[in-house]
Amino acid sequence: MNHIDAEELEQLTQAGAVTLLDVRTDPEVARGFIAGAKHVPLNQLPGRYEELDPQAPLVVYCQSGARSAQACAWLAEHGFTQVRNLQGGIVAWARAGLPVSEPE
Q1: Which domain holds residue 62?
Q2: In 38, 52, 60, 103, which residue has its Cα 20 to 30 A from 46's Cα atom?
């Protein structure tokens, strides 16, 4: 599985070169998220993965990286060719001093 760190992801998001997928639960997302991320809870992914482009660069994240790793493996099995897991999840993103957006 391909991993990406927070700094590399930040460069890709600045360039608009990646789709972000947040697979956390609704209550987790309510505590903050990475701006621009599409939210599809992990348990809803099998019914909603067609909302995503299987050919586009996709970075998946969760709280710590475990659920997003599961999502990456599942997506790869379903034809997603450019899927990467954010190492350490949103926790690592915040620790790197990168912005976490608050819900409206």
Answers
A1: 3-95
A2: 103
Q: Supply the pTM of this predicted model.
A: 0.95
Rounded to 10 degrees, the C-alpha dihedral 44/45/47/48 comes to 110
Instruction: Report pLDDT digits (tens) over 37-62.
Output: 999 999 999 999 999 999 999 999 99
Q: How far apart are CA 23 and CA 43, in angstroms?
A: 8
**Active-site annotation holds for 72:** no
Residue 34 domain flag:
yes
Amino acid sitting at position 24: R
Q: Number of folded domains in the chain? A: 1
Whether 31 contacts 100, CB under 8 Å: no
85: CATH: 3.40.250.10
